[in-house]
Amino acid sequence: MRTYKPYNGASATLRPRRRSAARAPADRLSSDTLLNVEQMLINEALVDKVLQYEKTEAALRASEKKLNELLAHQVASREEERKRIVREIDGNLGQNLMALRTDISALHARTARAHPRLHDWVDKALDRIDGTISSVGQIVAHMRPFQIELGVVAAVEWELDRFERTSGLRCRLSRDAHFDGKALSDEQTLALYRALQECLSNVFRHALASRVDVSFAQLDNAVTMKVSDNGVGFNTGQARKSSSYGLLDVEERMTALGGQLSVISSRPHGTTVTLTIPLVQFSSRNH
């Protein structure tokens, strides 16, 4: 308490003002209310974010499912077109070539003595026809190999044997004792076979390898095929080259079937391509 003298000389006492006792709880109440409102707004924003995230995730899953279905449809359409072309080649071109060869063979036999020069010309024409027939057969076998009907193991064995003879590279196939490939559908068998063809083509063109190892394993309702070489390898982090578009096609096939493709490579330790296809997904489809 202070005493001061006003201008007229009289003294006065200044007493401190007392704060109202009822005002403090009111201030605390308004502050608590404000905090509660802010927390409610934050909670509502978090709930909105979670709901938005769930909707986005569901949309992504639906989009991925549609993309896989589209890829599967494209792969199936390509194989159907291959079948149609093979039928056309085998039914029309193949038969016409065989009929032409029969006629040329008859001419070849008749000109042996009377027309030696014509006979030589016909002999060369007959060789060209035989070469054409052989090429057509190779094209048909590449587009729709008959070994597919025998299962993935027989198809891979045939392909490795053919590749070994044409390339000179040593090939080895290994598999689990209980794996026979019978659990694979026709689509899956064909996808693995096409992947093997692409891998062998890349090895022959780029790897500078001397050996190729192919292995099969079945574990946890999935089949895994590995294709490894002892070549120079490559840098998987580099930009995609035109020569790697074949692997992109393989990856699309794997994605369409619910599978995965992985490539591990480093200079100069060779390359390993691993393909994994689930069995449960397609066994349920087939039934």
What would you note in describing this structure?
With 287 residues, the chain is α+β, with helices and mostly antiparallel strands. The chain has helices at residues 23-114, 116-143, 152-167, 186-207, 245-256, 280-286; strands spanning 2-4, 12-14, 170-175, 211-218, 222-229, 260-265, 271-278. The protein has two domains: 22-144, no CATH class; 145-287, 2-Layer Sandwich (Heat Shock Protein 90). It is built from six helices and seven strands. The strands form two sheets. A five-stranded mixed β-sheet has the order 3-4-5-7-6. Strands 1-2 form a two-stranded antiparallel ribbon. Strand 6 (260-265) and strand 7 form a beta hairpin.
Give me the secondary-structure topology.
Blueprint: E1 2-4, E2 12-14, H1 23-114, H2 116-143, H3 152-167, E3 170-175, H4 186-207, E4 211-218, E5 222-229, H5 245-256, E6 260-265, E7 271-278, H6 280-286
Parallel strand pairs: 3-4
Antiparallel strand pairs: 1-2, 4-5, 5-7, 6-7
Helix pairs in contact: 1-2, 1-5, 3-4, 4-5
Protein name: Histidine kinase domain-containing protein
GO molecular function: phosphorelay sensor kinase activity; protein dimerization activity
Keywords: Kinase, Transferase, Two-component regulatory system
